[in-house]
Amino acid sequence: ILLTYDLFGFLPGKPWARKLYARNGEVMLEDKKDGRTTLNPQALVDAVEVENIHLKFTRGDKLRHVTIVRASGSFSSGNVSGEAVSAKNRITFDKLRREWDGGLRGAVTAEGENLKDLAEIVGASAPDTPPFDVNGELRMHQRTWSVEGLGGRVGDSDIGGAVSVDLKPEKPFLTVDLKSDKLDFDDMGVVFGIPVGAGRGETANEEQRVAKARYDQSARLIPDTHLDFARLAAVNANISYEAPRVVDAPFGVNAMTIKGELRDQVLDFSRFLVRTTGQGDLDARIRINAQDDPAKTRATGTLDKLPITRIVDTSFVRGTLNGRFALNMTGSGFREAFGSATGEAGIWSNNSEVAKIATEAAGLDFGEILLLLATNEDREYLKSRCLAGGLTFRNGLGELNPAVIDNKDSLIAASGHIDLRTEKLDIEVFALPHDVSIGKLFGDIRVRGTMRNPDISALDEKTVLQAGLSTLLASVTGALAALPFIEAGGEPDAPCAQLLADARNPSEAKTPPAKKEDPRKKS
Questions:
Q1: Cα separation of 102 and 228, whole Å?
Q2: pLDDT tens-digit profile of 432-490?
């Protein structure tokens, strides 16, 4: 090490050293308990020429290592360039210069495997990310680090905007204002344990590959992911993120906007807006209180004009869905939180239509199904008088209130429950005809299994008894064999006004579903 002093270093704005030569050294920065250690080389020295200098310091009770591979140039002339590495992260600087107020400004490029590791170096916090390669204009002034004009890529997504961290408060304050013109969903999905597209041809790191392997091998739909709420304790923050185009996302998600703030381990998203193809919106407000363990979450929001085909991939039902929900959850993991869900949700549609063949299939009306399949005409759709349903959740168990589709042909209803703790389904679907049906089987369609692997069955004891009766009548005369399969119809219309009102205001729905009278028992 060789240090050349400046005789005028006592003057304001003048560094004490004119030039620093250093090679093959190690520096341990002071371990201040308040975590406010920082390094402003431009305030101490003007010109530098260093190589292979290891810096060690403590951030968040963890020893950090940064190696200055090389650095040379003059801060006053604005031509300092350099390169530093920390673990799998690499940072390069160019045209660093000292400004009139003593701050430092210059170009910076950062690349590595996970932005979380880079954020921890400067005392900030970030979620796990895929590999990144970003650049921008670095500014360091009075213990505030910021990067403006940010650009580059995180995984297979572009990124732009600005990020800053203010180290002056006892708890650093992080400001994030970012935008991706095109977001590849699996780049964000690693946060939730569902990097759906990570794999061959995708930019991915070990965290993504492990998360995808676990999810692919699981029989569960809800990922087994625990959020590291300890990171929320590290900083306070304002967060804004916008992605006007999203690709490779589930349910047809094609745009996203997130705005929120973090204060003392309470993360409050004032807006979590998700758009789908067809301009259907999920607009939610989510508040996560991680001051206690386990964390407590309150989620409320609305669903607006979401295409039905985005939830169920079928050509038999068309139209859009609206919805409203309010849920309280407790848990630091997704499965734990959803397994405790308590609250209400309701859905309804003002423009749904059901293909006639689907209406008959819901009631196992094989006679009309065969007739419809035999014709070569365009599929006929029946406009619904109403489509509405409600779910009441208690400790993860969701009861249908029930869900109903009513049209001029039939009343189709579904009742039962969804257990978010085990993801098991037990739902019964039945149709009550408004017309005369030939070929009707009086057996219910039951949906069991799990949310990820549902099992649909149609035969029950009633169906077996009916088939036996048909065989007995057929031994007398062939024409009589059809009698057990003829239903007179004439079922009353559903009370659509009340059903729609309950769906729009699920918390005001009157009777618990388990106590509602089975409409099939009515004469």
A1: 37
A2: 666 544 444 344 567 788 877 777 665 454 444 444 444 444 444 444 444 333 344 44
**CB-CB neighbours of 471 under 10 Å:** 11
d(CA 203, CA 114): 12
Other Cβ atoms within 10 Å of 264 Cβ, number: 11
124-160 tens-digit pLDDT: 666 677 889 999 999 988 788 899 999 999 888 999 9
Whether 438 and 368 have beta carbons less than 8 Å apart is answered as: yes
How far apart are the C-alpha atoms of 328 and 340, rounded to whole Å?
8
The residue type found at 26 is E
Higher pLDDT residue, 480 or 208?
208
Neighbours of 305 (CB within 10 A): 16
Q: How many residues in the chain?
A: 523
What's the whole-number mean pLDDT along residues 61-89?
89
6: DSSP letter = -
Torsion sign over Cα 28, 30, 35, 38 = negative
- At residue 511's C-alpha, the angle toward residues 507 and 513, to 5°, is 95
Q: Collapsing DSSP states into helix, strand and coil, what is residue 2? A: strand
**Helix %, strand %, coil % for the chain, to 5?**
20, 45, 35
> How far, CA to CA in Å, does 103 sit from each of 7, 10, 61, 264?
22, 18, 28, 29
Q: Give 436-505 as a DSSP string.
A: -EESB----EEEEEBSSSEEEE---HHHHHHHHHHHHHHTT-GGGGGGGGEE---PPPP-HHHHHHHHHS
| Phi, psi for residue 12 in degrees, rounded to 5 | -60, 135
Give the CA count within 13 Å in the CB-facing half-sphere of 257: 10
What tokens appear for 398 in the block?
Answer: 């969701």
**CA 49, CA 39: separation in Å to the nearest integer?**
17
Helix 185-192 to helix 206-217 angle (10° resolution) is 70
On whether the CB atoms of residues 485 and 465 are closer than 8 A, the answer is no
Q: Global pTM? A: 0.74
Which residue matches tokens 């003048």? 14
pLDDT at residue 60 greater than cutoff 70: no
